[in-house]
Amino acid sequence: MDAVAEGLWGLADYQEQSGEIGKAIKCLEAICQSDVSFFPIVEVKTRLRIATLLLKHSHNVNHARAHLERAQLLLKSIPSCFDLKCRAYSLLSQCYHLVGSIAPQKQVLHKALELTATGYDIGVKLWSCNFNSQLANALIIEGDYQSSIAALDAGYVCATQIGYPELQMFFATCMLHVHLMHWEDESSVEQAVAKCDEVWEFLHPQKRQQCLGLFFYNELLHIFYRLRICDYKNATPHIERLDAAMKADLKKTQHLQQLTKEFDALNESLTRPELHHRERLALSEKQSRIQHQLASLTTLSSTSKGTLEPACFGNMKRTDGDKLELAPPPIDGEWLPKSAVYALVDLMVVVLSRPKGNFKDCGKRIQSGMHTIQEELLKLGITDGVREVNLQHSAIWMAGVYLMLLMQFFENKVAMELTRSEFVEAQEALVQMKNWFIRFPTILQTCESIIEMLRGQYAHSIGCYSEAAFHFIEAVKLTESKSMQALCQIYAAISYICIGDSDSSTQALDLIGPVYRMMDSFVGVWEKTNCLFAYGLLLMKQQDLQEARNRLAKGLQMTHNQLGNLQLVSQYLTVLGSLALALHDTGQAREILRSSLTLAKKLSDIPTQIWVLSVLTALYQEVGEKGSEMENVEFQKSRMDALQQKLVDAHSSIHHIELIDTVKIDIQQFHELGSNRSTMGPPMSNLDIPESVGLSAPLPGHSTSRLVDIDIGNIGRRGKRKM
Known about the structure:
This protein is mostly helical. The chain contains 30 helices and no strands. The longest helix is centred in the middle third of the chain and has 39 residues, at about 230-270.
């Protein structure tokens, strides 16, 4: 019977290589369903193979789990077979993870760790690393971050014991990831960052080149850390290295595809029987050269040929070249698919470039990233009519990854268009965000507050301050993020200040006061700079000009040194220029306002330009420069005409009322998904990706020359994200 099993295994291999996965599984199931009994070891190997094929090429997780549970029962009666037992535990754990059954997954992993606890050779330690890695992931889903770090630390110790620096780096980066997700204190996160740097430096340069997945993972985590503490300057080198590596890998991949295509064409030509000897010899030599080039370009996959671990889940059918592996076998894990990582690199370029006004590059990156994501969503079967109720459960996790990335690209698109007063384009992007959220309300649940906040930004930009305040307050209610709550309270307060009456000023103070008292407790300076800006405006309203100047000067210094956000710097300068003028310091006012106008022009920020020009007009009147005043008024009028036309276009759009209407988005959640919400979020959970979305100045008709009524322009913001 061994010969029969070997024959069916061989036939299954042939069918798999031919792409006939169903036939391959039938060959293997013939062994399990046979009336003649095979040795238990044969049935175990067969069932593990079936489970691997099902996980790799289908959504049939329950069928795979049934085979694995049967294999486990058979293995209990076999005293040896350590490797097969470990493979069964590993695959069964992954099955439970895919269906969201965390309790049985943890039970399986604890049994597996008991099995590996007494061994000391490299193979045993590697399996222990595998199980600790999976256990850490399961514990994160339950929110048990300390236990997750303990499991990863145990894996790090195992990797150190066997002298495996690549595996040490894997666990070091995973621990940094958990620290970023659950930020307890900055010193712990700093230590995790330092540990990653230390292990990475210890790796041989040639090894680093081979660990492309670890390189991307480590660099992205460093970027998240730098953005979280508002260290934009030191985040830039990381994104530059990532961008260069991504472009090099894409170029290599294109070259590899071209060579493969040429190699296949040569193989086909060599099959022609009428080929002359000399031609055949020349083609064979060329074939040999190309084969050598392919061998030099193709790095050996870290997944050994004999492994039973599935390369990926959910019918993705990706090749080894499409993976960015993080660890050697038997882990063979990847944080995200290569396409998602590359989209994330594009997103990071946008996040760092947009506040500097590099809109042309941002536009290209947004388009590139969204195109990549749309292609991957199509592969998952997510077309125009598909909603989350139609998704296979095993596809939810991966869909969540791409959908969250897509929403962040839309968010940046809205921010960019509002900054440069392209209100219609901002409307379209915001409506698309809203429509995606309506279709996938549970997967994108954390985006609801972002959408409400952006509705507030849009409403404020076109002068609908009451509606803006409503949406900002709704955003506060919809998020658990203290950072997001604080920022939206500040935005709502600014909208109330723009309304201008005494009741609105009181409401603004009620909103800003609690944030002002706790602003030093936040990580980074986003909340503090925005709060100081809004508080300065209120002090101006109360005619406490010198104190307002002190607070605003402090906020400007922070913004300039740590954020580099040109929008917020421009707004600070405009207010400070207005204050200098009110305090009759015309020399300083002139210098400050010119700097502000330069920045507003770079950003194509028309409302802020008009705001600065109105203050400059008052300055020229005070110093008696009639010629400069007339020239300034003429330029201001041309800017107001341009803005007015954009506002008319926005108001006439079919989406305008839909976006500013003071009602929440009406959605229907799929209850089964809701009950398993913690199991389906993307693996970037709770990483802060700072942003800066603008609040525009009021309509030209609402402007006034009185200092206390000078309204704000674009304010930076940072939203907390499930990344």
